[in-house]
Specification:
alpha+beta, Rossmann fold, Dna Ligase, domain 1, D-amino Acid Aminotransferase, Chain A, domain 1, 3 domains, 8-stranded antiparallel beta sheet, 4-stranded parallel beta sheet, 13 helices, 29% helix, globular
Length: 430
Amino acid sequence: MILVLLSPRNAGLPFAEWLREKSGRLLAVTAEGVDPGPGFADVERVPDYTDDDALLDAARQMAGRHAVTRVLALAEVDVERAATLRAELGLPGQLPESARAYRDKVLMKELAAEGGVAVPPFAAVASAAGVEAFMAAHPGPVVVKPRGGSGSTGVAVLHDPAQIPELADRLTAGDHEVEGYVTGRMCHVDALHVGGEPVVCVPSVYTDGGCLSHWTDSGNGSWTLPADDPLYERLVAETWKLVGALPAAPALFVHAEFFVTDAGGIVLCEIASRVGGTPIPAMLEALLGLDPRHLWARLECGLPVDLDAVRTHAATAPLMANFGLPPREGRIVRLPAEAPAGTREFTVLARIGEDWGGARYAGRKSGDFIATWLVEAQDAGELLALLDKTGAAAEAAFGWEPAGAEPDLPAAEAGYGREPAGAEPEEASR
């Protein structure tokens, strides 16, 4: 039976359809209140899905009742948990040594540098004094972030040592990294590696601001590079070099991020051993011919996949771009009446009356969007112009009022919009 570690953000994904040969023989460990959907024979729920010990204990109880043959995990938070369970149960798939290297940003960069991949100056830090020492040795802006974080949560850009005391409390846990701030374009590469061989590799460029755009309430997305762009092959080569530098796994779907400096150098930001976050999966589905989470789930569960069809589809696909509109600080009072012209897969992820004030706004992630969509074109200039046009139209279609204002909403509109299935926040941190 297949044990699925089901993050609440992935609730609603059609596992029974994707793993049709195993429907009725699926097991889930998830959070209280989450419906895993059809096809599951048994479900364990934990009060707090962020509690590693509780989740692993629940999974072990499940394995004690059933003959588990595979462990499937799609969320970043579950990468190491799944690896731990595979090691304990003697199951195939990514094991702890590999999983840790793809999660720990310090170990990741140590191994990458040993493998010939350029990395920024970096260090593990456990105190404000550690950051201060790093800034003294490396003048200029620095980035401080959790070693195993995701969705740009907990990331801080420091321009002056006087800002360090603002971070002192969070650094005492000793699980942070500091690195030099790299200027230039930010790119991501989504790639599949099976049985020691490359299958497909998709280089893309983030729009201005990248995954920190939500800090300024700006939308963000990315667009696929044309194969004849000189940067295309360089990013592909750097991605496979990076995969080769980290501990191997039987199959890997990776989401790598690189800076391309003004001088043309390619410098690692980080890499994750999972599918990129929303809205990247929708873009990859258009490029690969099926949802990348569907593809990855079948591979992880040892089920057949036509990899040649994936290669062919990727080689003949048009240029694609994805975009997500972040929330403002306030309450939503108007939603788009229709999809902006030129968009595909336009999805409203909000509802009338939804409040993004206070702590919720302060804690927003790079993958928190009120709408997402795709555009396609035959050349990069047309693609980027279409992104600008549709972004302006979508933003104008939403209406906001200050948080805390007394709502005056038609009852019929209160439930408009939905949470996205599988809306894993983007892993990028800067």
